[in-house]
Amino acid sequence: MNPLGNLVAPELELRLLDLLDPKVQYNDRTHNRIQIDLLSITPERSSFHKNMGTDELSVILMPRGEEPLNIEEQSTTNVFFVTDPFYGDSEERKAGDARPPLNCTALHLHQQLGVPLLLFEHMSPSLEYRSSGTGFYTKYNDKDDIVSLDGICHLSQGLDDRPAYIWFSYGVLASQTATYVIYNCAANAKRLITTCAQRRNPRELLRPFAVDLFLIDDMLETWTVKLSKFRTKLITYEEDHALFSQTSVHLNALAVAELHSLSQNLNVVVGNLVDYKHRNEFFLSARDRYLSLSRPHFDVAERSLVTVTDSLGLMTSRATVLMNWAANYNARTKIRINMFFNLTTQGDSRTNLDIARLTTKIAVSSQKDSSSMITYGDICAFFIKEIMIAAVTMFFLPGSFVCAVFSMVFFDSHPGNAGRMELSVAPQWWLFPLVTIPLTIIVFLVWVIWRRRRISALRDVEVRVQPVAEDASSSSTYSIEKLGYST
């Protein structure tokens, strides 16, 4: 079989031919652990085949030229749910592994159903990048007649789960004929689809793109639940006032780190909701293309078109509201981050101010301690020397002053009868000792009184300085310990 025969877009898929390794069909040891469920739907009834293996799939999808086994003779829509833990975003693969070739299941789906290699390229990220996107294309037969509208897309299922990859093929020659292959379908979406087919009216799933509505609604519900959890965490930071009254550098750092993680997750939610709206636009475009291609062959019931369009419109509106709230929560998260950052900055400023005040107190205390150490002993020795000098000065000062005033009145020298110099004393000589002695005594008394008051004042200073120094020392120790710098 020509490997180029199944390439719907050679310009995009030719470089992926390395994924078609025929040896895999014989060397694949993982096919027994791959689970395939098949839901077949007709206008009257539906059937669900669970836990099909690769061998059963190969019987259903027999090679061209052989007679295939009809699952349901009147089945018009088949949905294959594939759970393959070994291919694509596999937990078995390590980061950095090269894109593996198609395994046995993928080869059967590609060769017998025409699942394009582009879908498997999306599922299997290469070493450093992932090719993703949505698209639909028109499929022709050997006579260049349009036979179907095929499309691929992927849906994110949250922050922790692997994406769901979808391929659909809607026949345009007969109404209500479609085939779906869904890798990693969400469990809840799968349950709702099978419930609708088995317990409700199976015709509801025959509406064009009704299966996709279940998938994208479940995706929106998943992100709604995620967003509600993020909102609860944000409100905890907004309403818990104890977080602000008992702040510390360590707690603020933890809060900022958690809020940064919350902001990152909210950005992821916004991005996925934007992608979600693009998916809805994609399905609307694919539906319009399907209607234009099928109109020459049959008409689609108006009810099928209106109900699908209405549901897509409602889900798009819900996504818009969620996206707006996610952006709102993200902005509020950034406000909380700035607030915690400002609280940390203010705490650092207060700490620096406390350290500055403490340094000032320590400097003042040290100066007072130094002053108190020389208050009495050194000052006494200094004043003894001053006393001696002052005593000599004050002893001669009154006499000098009196002599200066009365020298030319009380004493005189002149030659005597014998030719010798004689000293004569005036009769008022007694005025000199009478004035000098009391004045000297008065000066000494004034000096003694001044000195005693000075010494008393210095002792009072010493008494006042000592408690202040002790208080400064104790307060300094308390402040240091309070700030966490005590040794």
From TrEMBL:
It comes from Pholiota conissans. Gene3D superfamilies: Magnesium transport protein CorA, transmembrane region. The chain crosses the membrane at residues 387-410, 430-450. This is Uncharacterized protein. Keywords: Membrane, Transmembrane, Transmembrane helix.
